[in-house]
Design brief:
Length: about 260
Amino acid sequence: MTDDQLLRYSRHILLDEVGIEGQERILAAHALVIGAGGLGSPVALYLGSAGVGRITLVDHDVVDLTNLQRQIAHTTARVGQPKVASAAQAVQAINPDVQITALQERVDALRLHTLVQEATVVLDCSDNYATRQAVNAACVRLGKPLVAGAVIRFDAQITVIDPREQGTPCYACLFDPAARFEEVACSTMGVFAPLVGVVGALQATEALKLVAGVGASLTGRLLMLDGRSMEWSSLRTARNPACPVCGTAHATPAG
């Protein structure tokens, strides 16, 4: 670690739970962030400021004026630019040492396999059910930890999927991939701006803990926030033996 790094990350290094070894693990990590919008913005900014060595940002969309109410990595001047390019610019303004790969694309299962395989930790900051299920399936298949968050209106949730921990549930254990329902979008339902910052910051927290080996993660727990009353609730979750993704009959070795 260089003198500049020792200074930049000194507040992490001062933490007994992190120290130099933990910060070095953060510096060596590669985070894959799916989505560069409301959740992806604080996620990217906090991972970059904390010193995650490599960050891959994936999002097909461009910055729109309606995004600026909550997507804090973007600016009015960057309306019309790819979100991944805008977010990468914001991160590098904070920490130019971070290596950022900005991919403006929609990812399918085959592409996810390649991207997840290269990552240390994956953060699902997407805004649709199909993508969440596809990301989960890739992480389970490849044995990669996943931090999944979601916000709509005044309601928020976050959990960690860690296939490395035997007997713990995956996203499909909690939410059936075959479920048919009308997709709820913030463009029609709305979203309270600060909540995406709250959940995005928590996603970055969980990812950094996983990378640095600090504390206990949200694996096996679904943490939910009602922003109207500012009440948190935590639901213990269990693995579904019949899960179509991680269940005994469907489990495949990582690799």
